[in-house]
Amino acid sequence: MNRLKNVAIVGATGAVGREMLDVLEGRRFAHGELTLLASSRSAGQTLRYRGEPHTVRELTKDSFKGVDIALFSAGGSISKQFCPIAVATGTMVIDNSSAFRMDPAVPLVVPEVNPRALDAVRGKAAIIANPNCSTIIMLMAVNPLRSAFGIKRIAASTYQAVSGAGAAAMDELAAQAKAVLGGGKAEANIFHEQCAFNVFSHNSAMDPRTGRNLEEQKMVDESRKIWGDQTVRITATCVRVPVMRAHAEAINLTLSKPATEKQVREALAKAPGVEIVDDRAKNLFPTSLKASGKDDVLVGRIRVDESQDFETRGGEVWATGFDLFIAGDQLRKGAALNAVQIAELL
Ligand SMILES: NC(=O)c1ccc[n+]([C@@H]2O[C@H](COP(=O)([O-])OP(=O)(O)OC[C@H]3O[C@@H](n4cnc5c(N)ncnc54)[C@H](OP(=O)(O)O)[C@@H]3O)[C@@H](O)[C@H]2O)c1
Q1: Using one digit for the tens of pLDDT, what is the confidence trace for 79-97?
Q2: From atom 45 of ligand 1, which residue's Cα is the shortest distance away?
């Protein structure tokens, strides 16, 4: 009989780590022993899981003995140091950081998009990378249209929640909002700009040569890797907005072949992990709040982009240009849920 796999969460006390616990519990993921790991700062702290307190232990090089699957969400430098140690111990690693995403030997997987990429590592101790959160959320909405009509070009603009920068960033937004409303000054530590009552260019590193920040570059490079298509044209503008969780994105598409709006809606309606929220009569569409805590990516504002080629045939508009507005919880589908789905597939 197959024994149940022992699971470790590295970074269990963080924004993604806590969500991992919630996702494992919610999906009744069958596992053996569960090990919660974080820095020495959190060792001894307890987190509740399935109604019981679980003690957090300090991550060390010996933490992976007897662990079958390790879910990493403790930042790139910890992943670079400890994922190879875990693999050498015989542990299968699913890593949420960007450390290994573009390594050609490492599968970069969204289960609804490219599950076959896991075939190369099935049954082995290896690293599997979870893609960038904005990329996952975008591909959840765009991939069904790629399957049906092909995709030539994507122009994405993001409206990203502060929790994408971790638990401390959520505290910063709350503290700044309180300070400003109380007539005081907002103190910025995590972000380079005030996040309360403000909208600003994404805080990731800016490439002085291209003018693109790292988040924008990830959306281009990772989408191409996941699709195995280096020719698809993608441009992105990534921006932080003062919301706690769930990223929203405005997406402009050029399909490879013309489609009607009805066909686009039908392709989205049957896509797993996608929910259409598109009530023109009531002006109700995806929002960060509606997406918060949800597994599905919400898709709305589905419309023809008449600035691109279109023609009217048989009373219907056939177009290659379409606009969407989407929202997805980046702590769930953009991180924890996607990682747990990969573990389920394995
Ligand atoms: N937030 C998102 O929406 C999101 C989405 C996709 C991917 N990710 C990626 O997921 C990772 C975690 O992000 P997060 O938002 O959860 O960050 P976070 O809230 O800041 O949590 C960081 C976690 O890493 C642990 N950690 C820090 N230093 C450590 C060390 N030296 N040894 C062991 N554990 C250590 C922390 O433990 P302590 O509590 O002990 O400090 C905490 O559990 C990052 O790589 C991030 O890029 C995040």
Answers
A1: 999 999 999 999 999 999 9
A2: 75
What share of the chain has pLDDT > 90, as a percent? 99
Q: Beta strand pairing status for 69-72 and 92-95?
A: parallel
Ligand 1 pocket, 328 CB below 6 A? no
Cα dihedral 299, 301, 305, 310 sign: positive
Distance 157 CA to ligand 1 centre (A): 25
Closest Cα to residue 218, out of 183, 185, 187, 247? 247
Ligand 1 pocket, mutate which of 96, 240, 243 (most atoms under 8 A from CB) = 96
Catalytic residue among 83, 202, 238, 247: 247
- Strand duo 46-49 + 69-72: pairing: unpaired
* Ligand 1, atom nearest to 97 Cα: 45
Query: Is the per-residue pLDDT at 1 higher than 90?
Result: no
**Which pLDDT score is estimated for 2?**
75
Ligand 1: residue whose CA is nearest its atom 40: 39
| Mean pLDDT confidence for 185-212 | 97
Output Rg (C-alpha) for the chain, integer angstroms: 21
247: annotated active-site residue:
yes
195 is catalytic: no
**Which residue has the CA at smallest separation from atom 20 of ligand 1?**
166
Residue 255 main-chain phi, psi, to 5 deg: -80, 160
Q: Is the pLDDT of residue 334 over 70?
A: yes
Give the confidence band of 39 by pLDDT, cuts at 50, 70, 90.
very high
Measure the CA–CA gap between 116 and 120, rounded to whole angstroms: 8
**Tell me: the pLDDT tens digits for 108-123?**
999 999 999 999 999 8
